[in-house]
Amino acid sequence: MRRVRAISLFSGCGGSDLVLKRLGYNLVWANDILEVACDTYRDNVGSAIEHGDISDFEKFPTANLLIGCYPCQGFTQGGRRNSSDLINYLYQEFDRVLRRVIPKAFVVENVNGMLYGRNRELLDNQLRRYRFAGYSVKSQVLNAKDYGVPQNRNRVFIVGIRSDLSFKYKFPDPQFGPNTGQKFESQKIALRGLPDWPTGEFNEEPFHWYYFSRNRRRTWSQPSPCIVGHWRHVPLHPMSPPLRRIHTDKWIFSRKGPARRLAYRECAALQGFPRSFVWKRGSVRQRFQMIGNAVPPPLFEAVVGNLRDLW
């Protein structure tokens, strides 16, 4: 594939951009507001990223692909939500850049919570904006475990193809799970070789009532629950005792034994980051945030891989 020029917005530490680099795309510009994420990006992806608020940038290089994973606090199904928070409207900045650059295609990823209730109106508004910008737009929820990520993680993807092009995008079919001939990737395989008790790499605070309001443990042979950006809420390591349900919002350990949350390197492995990815910037808490907010590379590779014939 010839080197297609690409721009990445809300790039974070570079989960999606790592894939573009590996596939041979030419990342000509990237941006994130979090400085530690930009530093981590430079350690692993390249120097194309600029630190700052996207609203402060007016000029952008030419590109045929625009990608972005704007923040999603207002759409999330876990943690605090505020539908009036201005962070929920950062898609307008993506739309602004889209209309300036006019690429052949764009890809957006966000939490699937935007499909439900009042959030649906915000999703519909995004789809309308991108269509008015001159794109044929499709959206679909994909689960990361269907694409080789050892984690149960549903995310909505929006893919747009410029309307003057004849190319028709199709979302990738599941590659793992029922009817594929491939078992879901397990935590056992993903975590193989990592230390059992990596002191200093996980949150050692006592478990609180909210943590036990749901089942945050899966067995070694299963994919992990969703990896989140807050280190207090990441799932239990599978070495922990099984949880037993007491009532709707209360779970307890079924027996005594060592129990801990996942470490940040384990979360990175369960997101599909390669072991070679360097995590040396910021605090441990910030590393959890970067990892949990990232796009799992194998999932993004499946989505962007279906653009191959467009180029």
What sequence of helices (H) and strands (E) makes up the elements? EHEHEEHEHEEHEEHHH
| Helix share bin | 10-25%
Number of strands: 9
Strand fraction: 15-25%
Low-confidence stretches: none
Q: Which strand order spans the largest sheet, edge to edge or round the barrel? A: 3-2-1-4-5-7-6
Q: Could you say which structural class the secondary elements and strand pairing correspond to?
A: alpha/beta
Radius of gyration: 19 Å
In short:
This protein has 311 residues and is α/β, with parallel strands linked by helices. The protein is built from eight helices and nine strands. The strands form two sheets. It has a seven-stranded mixed beta sheet, sandwiched between helices.
Structure description:
The chain has 311 residues and is α/β, with parallel strands linked by helices. It starts with a strand and ends in a 6-residue tail after the last helix. A seven-stranded mixed sheet has the order 3-2-1-4-5-7-6, sandwiched between helices. Helix content is 24%, strand content 17%. The protein is globular and about 60 Å long. The protein has helices at residues 15-23, 35-44, 91-101, 119-132, 187-190, 264-271, 284-293, 297-305, and strands at 5-9, 26-32, 49-51, 65-68, 105-111, 135-143, 154-162, 243-247, 250-253. The longest helix has 14 residues, at 119-132. It is built from eight helices and nine strands. Helix 1 crosses helix 8 (297-305) and helix 6 (264-271) runs parallel beside helix 7 (284-293).
Write the layout of secondary structure elements.
Elements: E1 5-9, H1 15-23, E2 26-32, H2 35-44, E3 49-51, E4 65-68, H3 91-101, E5 105-111, H4 119-132, E6 135-143, E7 154-162, H5 187-190, E8 243-247, E9 250-253, H6 264-271, H7 284-293, H8 297-305
Parallel strand pairs: 1-2, 1-4, 2-3, 4-5
Antiparallel strand pairs: 5-7, 6-7, 8-9
Helix pairs in contact: 1-8, 6-7
